[in-house]
C-alpha cells in the first residue's frame, strides 16, 4: 500500500507555494520518518524539499540550457488588464512561455484574453480566473 505525502514547494522567484502530492511506499516513508525522528530533518516536507532541490541543482545546467533554447521566462510573469489592453491596442498577440508562475489578473475578461493571447505554455503553475482558463483551454499546452 502506498502512502501519500503532500509537499508545499516554495518558489525561488516570486509567487506562493504550490502543493503537490506524491505516493511513496511504506518503506520509503518509514525511512523518511526515521531520519526526521533522528533529527536530520525538521519534518517530512523538509527532507522532500531538500531532495528535490538537490536533484534540481544536479540538473541546473540542463534546465538553464533548455530555458534559453526555448525562450522561456524563468520565474514569475504577471499580465494585468492594462498589459493586455496595450497588447490589443498594438494589434499584437502573446505567446506566453513560462517556467515558474504565469498569472493573469482577475479583472481580465475572457474576451480580452482571447483577443490578446495566442498560446500559453507554463511549466509550473498558471493562475487565472476560471472563466479565462475556460476561454483559453484550447490554447493552453
Automatic annotation (TrEMBL):
Signal peptide: none annotated. It comes from the Bacteria. Transmembrane segments: none annotated. It holds the Pfam family RHH_8. InterPro entries: Arc_rbn_hlx_hlx, RHH_8, Ribbon_hlx_hlx. CDD domains: RHH_NikR_HicB-like. This is CopG family transcriptional regulator. It comes from Paraburkholderia sejongensis.
